[in-house]
Request: fold
Amino acid sequence: MTHVIPVFKREFLGYFRSPVAYVFLVVFLMAAVGLAFFLGRFFDAGQATLESFFVFHPWLFLFLIPAAGMRLWSEEKRTGTIELLFTLPLTTLEAVVSKYLAAWAFLCVAIALTFPMALTVGYLGDPDWGIILTSYMGSMLMAGSYLGVCSLMSALTKNQVISFVLSVIVCLILLFLGWSVFNELLEAYLPQFLADVLANFSFITHFEPFTKGIIDPSDVVFFLSLTGFTLFLNVVALER
Amino acid sequence: MIEVSNLSKSYGTKPAVSGVSFRVQQGDILGFLGPNGAGKSTTMKMITGFLQPSSGTAKVGGIDVAVDPVGVKRQVGYLPESAPAYGEMTVLEFLEFIAESRGFRGADRKAPVERALRLTHLITVQHQTIETLSKGFKQRVGFAQALLHDPDVLILDEPTDGLDPNQKNEVRALIKELAQEKAVVLSTHILEEVEAICTRIILISEGKVVVDETPAEFQARQPGARLDEIFASLTKSDV
Reply:
């Protein structure tokens, strides 16, 4: 897997060689913090927690991760560089993994750059740092799953707009399955066990425990297996 | 060095290449001729391992590309049509990336990158981003990328496309020089180019090999006729 390194490096630095990284980071940070302050009433709550910050992450990611991931394969296909990449001595799996990891590392940087929020609650009160840490972990894991979906959608088309729209739709479905409003609707029409099974496929269901300080192995496995599965399909889609 | 037998590729029900066979030895410069859409690029993409053939085999240096694509990719330098590259990188960054991907790590990548820059006369623009370069320079970046690891086999899809006459001559001279210890396959629309550098001509029409001979034999088909007249008479059905 040493072949992963050059492609990873190129892809990760590629974000910073174009304005993409800076525009994305500014929008991401403004949206993440803005949602917590204005919708989440971060200050009014008067509590030293980041709950009102993390609760919006599944919704924030719904639009911002497809925006970051839409170009992953679409752009390679459109500009023809995919021909270059796949005539270098590396396997499709190595190419998929290295590009994915580069994009994920970039998203982790974006998420980590929200650290002033944590410093703020630390300054104003006495927060539970364990919960903040698990929340960040959950957020990064969830971002990885969103990105897996986006990478797959991006491999299906050379049009970035189509890639973005498809990604948002698939992520929206995976999100809605666990949204309480939608869940009640499901329970009204479907047998209880089926509604529960469907809810189990949601980002929110598996992200919430992290924001309460709980690392449940089943949640970790959910995010990792969803990521693994989408990347597997990604390889299949590219080799087709 | 290259052995292609009965190679076919179809997209859906439409055949793009059907039953193409040929061999290329060290020292050969094989000119791929044919109208647009005849299957030249598709055949080249199958030899490089970028496309999977529907049937038939392509071997490079004895390795079947369907069995060990990475093994083939290691030996081949490929210039895709219109020389795609990551436009936001500088020429140097791009070639260093290619060098690293080809297994030259750390200080080892300096020598092959410098050699490629020198051979393709890119030293003066090495710190410019590729997207700011003119078509001729971009083409040379693609060429530099293909010969960076000094491969045994060079596959060049329209290598002189977009170059001015002087640059064309330069690239031809370079190909000729490199070909002494390599096997080269190049596709072109320019018939004079074939005459100038190729040791063999393969003419593809509608996905099939119509002609496989030396430029002299090709010319002898209609003595005194211009090459494009011979080309036209052989590819009449493919318009």
Remarks:
- The mean pLDDT of chain B is 88.
- Chain B is about 35% helix and 25% strand.
- Residues 2-234 of chain B form a domain with the Rossmann fold fold (CATH 3.40.50.300).
- The radius of gyration of chain B is 18 Å.
